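Now for a chain:

_____
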Amino acid sequence: MSMHDGHRKRMRERFRAHGLDGFAPHEVLELLLFYGRARGDVNVLAHELLDTFGSLKGVLEARPEQLMTVHGVGEEIATLLSLMLPMFRRYSACVCEEHPRIRNRSEASAYCKALLAGWRTERFYVLCLNTAGQLLGQRMIAEGSLAEVIAYPRLVVETALNYNAHSVVFCHNHPSGNSQASPEDVATTLRLQRLLAGLSVTVLDHIVVAGESTYSMIQHGDSSHSAALAGMVTLPPGKGKEKST
């Protein structure tokens, strides 16, 4: 057994015994790279990837063509690394399906974070609920640039009607990392609220996701728009604490 083979064996045994607890970012990448390169040292490549993309998060969010600009990364490794985040999204979607009721703000925030994890462009979703808070379905209404996303009113109304929704929760992400709602976000929410009110569909909240942070327009409405949003029926906070900015 070579020195590198011994290192690989020890890393795998460590993971099986303790999970990823205590693994440094470059060690997490090494463990993944073992399965993209059958033999040899991948420590240098792991560090080069972190240097290029700034963090483990940056590596996992990179597109395959971006990953392949790093020396030593071929199609197999690029595919492996870029597969991790979509797999997490699929897993998160399965978890959400196991808990299809959204009864409070904590549950809504958790669902929205899983739904929007890792996207580099803004995406706007409508979550449709029945009278018991059960999730009837969801629809991505629009995908925009890094700076903005446009919520198409006709599609929002169509979605609520198709699911026969009693209430809805809006959510979208801010890839910039600032979860606070913008004036445009508030204006869009108010416009959609007025449209849906005419159909007897209640807008419970609009949640903005930025990484691990969430911003509830209802919970954190500041003086510039809290009065305008005061007519919206809110979700109770829930037992858990929300991480917000």
DSSP finds ten helices and five strands in the chain.
